TrEMBL record:
It is a multi-pass membrane protein. It comes from the Eukaryota. GO terms for cellular component: membrane. InterPro entries: TAS2R. Gene3D superfamilies: Rhodopsin 7-helix transmembrane proteins (1.20.1070.10). It comes from Canis lupus dingo. This is Taste receptor type 2. The chain crosses the membrane at residues 6-30, 42-62, 82-105, 126-152, 172-199, 220-242, 254-278. Its main location: membrane. The gene is TAS2R1. Keywords: G-protein coupled receptor, Glycoprotein, Membrane, Receptor, Sensory transduction, Taste, Transducer, Transmembrane, Transmembrane helix.
């Protein structure tokens, strides 16, 4: 019999899963339709499609992890698919990193020659960045699949079996996985913090020098800063939760463990909602799709 707080966690998990799949599905439909209509490569639409597809896959895997936590599915099923989880999670983080770099290059009001050079070339590089990310993320899955499977068996057994003891040999592999994730994190942090500080300084300068009516772009800059800050908080929370879950700091099914698992799953759904709410085109199309769904009912 499940305890009350486990039932609450399961309900939140189902809501998180449905919101994530719906939000990312809308992003795929809107940008996929744009790519088909235009019949040419649109860098941002292509990146958003790839990011949303990877997050739908990640939401499915996280949902199965939550079912395993509640003992609703068996541990071997999770272990067999752990290689896919490692690939999808890392791939989604790389896509989110390139999205941060793209926004920084296109939006940040920086006059340095390097950023002018990057702004011109980032669109042409996008397909190659996506392909390179897929190749980089697939390296552990292709060359270390056996080690990852053994690692997942040890970790999941120690997590889901109350009397099992943690095997110390897995610590090196744990650290190796976290080090691999540091590279997209550092690139993402650099691009987003640079975007936030440059927009903040530009907004402050516009407010101090303005003599007439308030410039509408000031409000746009403030909303952009808030969106990027929300994205940054979600991303850092995702990394911290992944580290704590990887090192098995908390006991299985404890309240803190469930919170970490919920925070880990909030990133792919929460950021997609921020993308939709912060993008007028996505927001308008999302309303149309939801209204169309209600009319069909």
């Amino acid at each position: 019999m499940l305890e009350f707080y486990l039932i609450i966690h399961f309900l939140f998990t189902v809501m998180q899963f449905l919101i994530g799949v719906l939000a990312n599905g809308i992003i795929v439909v809107v940008n996929g339709t744009e790519l088909i209509k235009q019949r040419k490569m649109i860098p941002l639409a292509l990146l958003l499609c790839c990011l949303a597809i990877s997050r739908i896959c990640l939401q499915l895997i996280i949902f199965f992890m939550n079912l395993g936590t509640l003992f609703l599915i068996e541990v071997p099923l999770l272990a067999d698919n752990f290689v896919i989880f490692v690939f999808v999670n890392e791939l989604g983080l790389w896509f989110a990193t390139w999205l941060g770099v793209y926004y920084c290059a296109k939006i940040a009001p920086i006059t340095h020659s390097f950023f002018f050079w990057l702004k011109i070339r980032i669109s042409k590089w996008m397909p190659w960045l996506i392909l390179g990310s897929m190749m980089y993320a697939s390296v552990p899955s292709v060359f270390c699949s056996k080690q990852i499977w053994v690692y997942s068996q040890n970790v999941l057994s120690s997590l889901f079996s109350p009397n099992a003891t943690q095997i110390k040999e897995t610590s090196a592999l744990q650290i190796a996985f976290l080090i691999r994730l540091l590279l997209p994190l550092l690139i993402f942090l650099g691009s987003t913090l640079l975007l936030i500080f440059s927009l903040g300084r530009h907004t402050w300068q516009m407010r101090n020098t303005a003599t007439g009516p308030r410039d509408p772009s000031t409000g746009v800059h403030v909303s952009t800063i808030l969106s990027v800050l929300s994205f940054l908080v979600l991303c850092l929370s995702h990394y911290m939760a992944a580290a704590m879950l990887s090192f098995q700091i908390f006991q299985l099914r404890s309240l803190v463990f469930l919170i970490c698992l919920w925070v880990f799953g909030s990133y792919p759904s929460g950021h997609s909602m921020i993308l939709i709410l912060g993008n007028p085109k996505l927001k308008q199309n999302a309303k149309k799709l939801l209204l169309h769904g209600k009319c069909c009912q």
